[in-house]
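hey so i finally got around to running the thing on that chain from the lab meeting. sorry it took forever, my laptop kept dying and i had to restart like 3 times. anyway pasting the input first so we r on the same page abt which one it is
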Amino acid sequence: MNTGPTGSTPPGRSPGRASPEPSGHGGHGTEPRPDDPDHAGLHEHVERHRDGSVRGRGPMDGEIPHGYWEWFRLDGTLMRSGTFDHGVQVGDWTTYDRAGVPHKVTRMRG
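ok and heres what got predicted. didnt touch it at all, straight out
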């Protein structure tokens, strides 16, 4: 399951701090695309820590996460990222250290 550090960052992303508001996910299919039935009707979802900072963000299909998601620590640093396929974790999920460097990659068997 743990494939070790990869040093890769998803396109359009740089490890680091969360921006105060969602930024779109730079090519991760988060914006609704009427020409793609798999992505039609998606909306951006932001979860917040008690202090109001971004805890997690990504696209939802109704109440189900679908697409690329990121989670952040209270200090705003990226903690984990990965992709959901209709609520199921799929592909490589990356855990980052506090400096934003990939620490561990787990391959999900969605």
